[in-house]
Amino acid sequence: MITDLKTLIDTCKQELHDREYHAHHADILIKEWDAVLQWFSHRGVSEFGQDIGYKYCDEEIGSHIIVKGMSSRQKKRLRAVRMLLSYQQAGDFEFRTPRVERTYDGETGQLILQFFQHERMIGRSEKTIACRQIALYHFNQYLTGHSLGFPDLDIDAIEGFFKAMDYSLSARHTCANHLRQLFHYLYDYGYTHTDYALFVLKDQYRDQCKIPTTYTEDEISRVLSAVERSSAIGKRDYLILLLAAEYGWRSGDIVSFRFSQIDWDSNRISFRQDKTDVPVEYPLLSSVGNAIIDYLKHGRPKSDAPEVIVLAEVGKHGTPLKPPTIHSIVCRYMREAGISHWKEKKHGPHSLRHSLASNMLKNNVSMPVIGTVLGHQRTETTKIYLKVDIGKLALCPLPMPALATSHYKEVTLG
Q1: Does 187 share its domain with 261?
Q2: Which of 23, 76, 85, 293 is deepest in the core (most CB within 10 A)?
Q3: Are 363 and 286 in the same domain?
Q4: Catalytic annotation on 385?
Q5: What is the C-alpha separation between 335 and 128, in angstroms, rounded?
Q6: pLDDT tens-digit profile of 260-287?
Q7: Domain Tyr recombinase spans what residues (predicted)?
Q8: CB 78 within 8 Å of CB 158
Q9: At 365, which CATH number?
Q10: DSSP E strands: which ranges in 133-264?
């Protein structure tokens, strides 16, 4: 990690050049970085880090996160400093300046932070940890706001938290899972004498979950045909849609798709899923393989990034995509393909994943095979797609038995 401020600024300046930032935008950032360097120089400080970076923002800008009423000028200055911090910590510029700073106060907060560290040590994905951080931040805020510690927890206290958050059924289900994992950790490592996971009541999410949004094979074909594949952007977008439609990949897997995951000799793609960390393997379909080659030869910007698919836009040239970009791309071609009522339905990459499973089921592919393709760990997860095959459901009703009681003997069943 680069701690010398001047070296860090020089590195970030080169990064702006390599990413082909617009000259005007780059000049604004460089001017702000020079001001930061001057501020540090006046104080005889050369080492840069989060604490001193936040101190600069708080003193010179007014905050180290975006707050209500902040001017455009202040936001630009803040953005410049946070770009230095994010590049120092992660080797990349953060996607956007946050509006919320999550701090975990009190003894409960310290234990929650230890839990996050434990999760990293056992190999939990950063995406999962990020979701836990959001849920447990709100839980810790609730505990501190009500002067509660872990020994004070019972069913009423936990239900009070859920009531205060007013979660939807799916959000409650997800948060409950994060709480159970935290409570298991606290009990297993002796921080509590009771496994408070017992006080997190079961919900009816699995029984009441909605039917997945799906599109027919014809609609998927129309979406793919809507791509203008003569342009570099079109070649990229076509490959993205194929990975979602042919393999059912989630957006996280698409943006992290790397050259090292392709075995050209054996014609297969292997990796660990971004969401679940479950290893999966796919045959390298000719349609996908040809799309990859076409993109690499005629569409991919020059970049040393290990990811296959990168941005071509000015200022972000050659950098990996973010999951929201995948959603925007799918939406664009849903619209251009003229898919009816797509706005009223789920229309991101996950809808293509659902559609793949549904269409495989209609073609009599077995549930275990569908589960393997989607990378599911449990058959129960795959069974949700049984709900969307109306044709096969129509074959399932049982015949009405004859009613022999005197009460019903005059009734004719239609």
Answers
A1: no
A2: 85
A3: yes
A4: yes
A5: 32
A6: 999 999 999 999 888 777 888 999 999 9
A7: 210-398
A8: no
A9: 1.10.443.10
A10: 262-263
371, 381 Cβ separation under 8 angstroms: yes
244 with 377, same domain?
Answer: yes
Q: Which of 13, 275, 322, 362 is catalytic?
A: 275
* 356 neighbors 246 (Cβ within 8 angstroms): yes
Buried b (16+ CB within 10 A) or exposed e, 346-356: ebbbbbbbbbb
pTM equals: 0.57
350 is known as an active-site residue: yes
347 is catalytic: no
Question: Domain of 68?
Answer: 5-90
pLDDT digits (tens, 9 = 90+) for 380-396: 665 665 555 555 555 55
pLDDT tens for each residue of 123-174 = 887 778 888 999 999 999 999 999 999 999 999 999 999 999 998 888 899 9
* 411 in Cβ contact with 235 (< 8 Å): no
Catalytic residue among 196, 238, 333, 385: 385
CATH number at residue 123: 1.10.150.130
